[in-house]
Known about the structure:
Blueprint: E1 4-5, H1 7-19, E2 28-35, E3 41-48, E4 56-60, E5 63-67, H2 69-75, E6 79-84, E7 89-94, E8 100-101, E9 107-109
Parallel strand pairs: 1-6, 2-5
Antiparallel strand pairs: 2-3, 3-9, 4-5, 6-7, 8-9
Amino acid sequence: MSIKLTEAAATQIxxxxxxxxxxEATAGLxxxxxxxxxAGYSYTFDLGKEPAHFDSVFEQFGARVFCDKKSYLFLNGTxxxxxxxTMSQGFVVKNPNSKGSCGCGSSFST
Length: 110
């Protein structure tokens, strides 16, 4: 399996890379998982200039996602979308490994 991007998420990643003056050819969105949040685990998002040595790299629609091996255990099969509404905007994680999540959707349980 892998980590998938929607076209909207890929477009937003490229916008963020441009704003941060990072090269699209090597840079990407670093997706991870840390302990914490109201449901047990929280998603982390950061921009990376290039993948770390043991990162898995996933590319779709010209955008890249980097994921460390430990986080990938929780994120395999996940889809990342980007949604913008009148009330909020941001990346939305659709994680098939999650058994539950908090009301705001920023943390999950396994």
